Amino acid sequence: MGNLISELQDEWADILIQGLQLSGRTLERSDVHLCVDISAAQVHELILGCHEQRYTREQAICILSRNFDALFISLFG
Prior knowledge:
Helices cover about 85% and strands about 0% of the residues.
């Protein structure tokens, strides 16, 4: 399972890098991987929190959306 997750994260990193290249931007590969890893960790923890009913799905989506906005702006803005 761990290898599958790593492969998926590598694929997401490749997609982001391709998108950046198409838009005429560049970013260090390590920064892209950092962004993907941070995003994956947040999604994982929020799924667990929803499953354990610590908060609602709507709350998780709202905070995740704000966090993604801030993350992408800081890295790609």
